[in-house]
Design a protein that fits this description.
By secondary structure, the protein is α+β, with helices and mostly antiparallel strands. Helix content is 35%, strand content 28%. It folds into two domains: 152 residues, Ribosomal Protein S5, domain 2; 122 residues, Alpha-Beta Plaits, CATH 3.30.70.890. The protein is globular. The model has no long low-confidence stretch (mean pLDDT 95).
Amino acid sequence: MRERAYAKINLCLDVVRRREDGYHDLRMIMAPVDFYDVVDLVPAEETTMSLNRSYLPVNDKNTVIKAIHVMQERCGFDQNFACTLLKHIPTQAGLAGGSADAAAAIRIINRLLHLNLPYQDLIDIAKEVGADVPFCLVNRPALVEGIGEILTPFECPAEFGILLVKPRRGVSTKAAFGGLDFSTIEHPDVDGMKEALEKGDYNGMISRLGNSLEKVSLDLVGEIREVKETLLDLGFDGALMSGSGSTVFGITKSPHLLHNASEVMRANGYFVRMTRIIDSSKRSS
């Protein structure tokens, strides 16, 4: 069974505090975008992984394999799978590619084995696999809280285009969070962003773009700043780093600007993808 694994962007990301267990409490506005890997699982005698990217692991460090093992343990089945992963979303990009792959695997197994798991059981499984996996499982624009497991989906009439641009270097999520200084951290207006998106208030959405992790990641990978400044200079109405980086996305209503900027950034050697926000509640899966 085959499933698309959609990337995400963070339109707003607030790191609220560092928890005693080492994790961080977050409040974020996340949205899936029309850019995806493809996960295919077939029941088999043993679990195997076929990849189109040689640098990816084929053990429990691969999120698809980890998702299978977590589901086996939690649900009490011993079925194995032959897995094929067509990888398009870059790694260390802030786009949740690995999390999206794991979420797709969870959805496939739930259907293939007719588990009919309740929503909260699926979220608990996803949370055990990784922090962004619950969002990728739901796959809708949402307010995301806690460490990523508390989701409030909402409708998002996003009538604009998005250009994803990833610098050559990625950013380690651990390094980004580890570099936070809570005495100077910026806390963007998450609730205001949600309200603007729900109302289709384009200018309100642009004015509320914010990411508590951006300053740290800019210091770790200087190219992020260059990409963001270039997108704004080219005429994008807003630009922001997604997640812990290193991908920066630009927002515009102009298809002409979207195409021209895509050519400019690709010519500069960056990974580039034109896309848009999607809402899975309004499309067939």
